[in-house]
Amino acid sequence: MRIYATPASPEKKTSESQIVIVHDLPDESPDPHVGLGSRGGRPRSRPPKTMERYQRILLYLEKINVSFDGFKAINDLTLYIKEDELRCVIGPNGAGKTTLMDIITGKTRPDSGSAWFTRDLNLLASDEVAIAQAGIGRKFQKPSVFEALTALENLELALAGPKTVWKTFRARLSGEERDFIEKTLARIELSDLRARRAGLLSHGQKHWLEIGMLLMQRPRLLLLDEPVAGMTPREIDRTVALLHELKGKHGIMVVEHDMEFVRAIAQKTVTVLHQGAVLAEGGMDYIQSHPAVIEAYLGEALC
Asked: Cα separation of 288 and 102, whole Å?
């Protein structure tokens, strides 16, 4: 996780930089003219007409293709996630799950296809900072927190809103902001550990703190990459409860290998990726009995 300070804006009459927290900023700004159609072209100013068929779509990906040195990482992938939906995405290693998240957050530019966040943001014509500001938050498999700061300070630093660098480090918070932090600390079960340095928290507690930091940004869509990796059974149970609390308040996409955990949190639809494409979609019982899914996993992860 990194802090990105945007320059002062004469248009908005601000004299100080604004803070945005994002992951792994690209070395160069993405080219908005690459990967925006079957043959490239200028970025779309309006969402595709097919998007109008679907109601309450938060994330719209259609016919996405990505190749790396001739290897097809994403192959004609189409995925729709509704507002307030919790969608689990599973698949064997190399299925394209990480690349999918990289496309959504602007880290990887596809060769072709359409990708929209609501009807307002063309993801293929936006950089990482703009996408994060629009309301997409990503949590990686390995917890990424500021270990030298306390749990409370991590949440304060991540707090969304028009706060400047100077205001952040002076920690002058409104009553509403403090209430929100208190509620978030309680939700992630760190109220009693607010003064503990993040580096001294348990592995599971670091995961929860990072989720809390994303919540401080008030995201519309949370992307969680293997959120229970390395957790104890008790920590996994608490994470299941946390995600049940969050569903309905945010759109959530969970990439996970732990099938017991997926069954515990899955709603109506689970998406299975294989070789960069959607292999199957449906309820958990349907997925676990699907012959092609079983073959793709070789029966190992579906027990």
From this structure: 27
| Strands in 32-131 per DSSP E | 57-68, 71-82, 86-90, 112-117, 121-122
Q: What is the pTM of this model?
A: 0.82
**Residue 203 near residue 143 (C-beta atoms within 8 A):** yes
Nearest Cα neighbor of 227 from 122, 41, 89 is: 89
Rounded Cα distance, 43 and 218, in Å: 27
DSSP 3-state assignment of 214?
helix
Beta bridge partners of 80: 60
pLDDT, tens only, 177-217: 999 999 999 999 999 999 999 999 999 999 999 999 999 99
* Other beta carbons within 10 Å of 153: 18
With a pLDDT cut of 70, the percent of the chain lying above it is: 77
* Residues in Cβ contact with 126 at an 8 Å cutoff, skipping those fewer than 6 apart: 30, 32, 106, 134
The per-residue pLDDT for range 45-66, each reduced to its tens digit, is: 677 776 667 668 999 999 999 9
Question: For 230-270, what is each residue's pLDDT tens digit?
Answer: 999 999 999 999 999 999 999 999 999 888 999 999 988 99
Of 159, 237, 152, nearest to 196 (Cα)? 152
Q: What strands, in cross-sheet order, belong to the sheet with 57-68?
A: 71-82, 57-68, 112-117, 121-122
**From its phi and psi, is residue 253 left (phi > 0), alpha (psi between -120 and 50) or beta?**
beta
